[in-house]
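User: Some background: our group keeps a shared notebook of sequences we're curious about, and every so often someone picks one and asks for a predicted structure to add to the entry. Today it's my turn. The entry only has the sequence so far, pasted here. Could you supply the structure so I can complete it?
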Amino acid sequence: MPPMLLRILLAICLSPQAAKYLSGGVIDEFYLAYRLALVKLIFGNKNPPLLLDDPFGNFDLLRLNKALLLFKDLGKDYQIIIFTLKDIYDETADNIILLG
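Assistant: Of course. Here's the predicted structure to add to the notebook entry:
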């Protein structure tokens, strides 16, 4: 586990009040990592599709770019479907479906 995520986990679990000092992007990053870990724990070697509703809404540009690289790599093993109103994912996406 990356040191930053470990610090966030400790801050949230040991002192919930400390979590209020973390940015929305940091908290979203932690919960995203937590959900991805749960997918591995629950499904093991099976790779279910990942359905995400605008998962990077609070990310700053640096955090967003790193997350997009991570998801591009995860896309080798998972089908990833992101629901969003934003076009920031267009360059990274293999396919885009516009609704409405």
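Suggested note for the entry: The chain is about 45% helix and 10% strand. The chain has one domain: 3-83.
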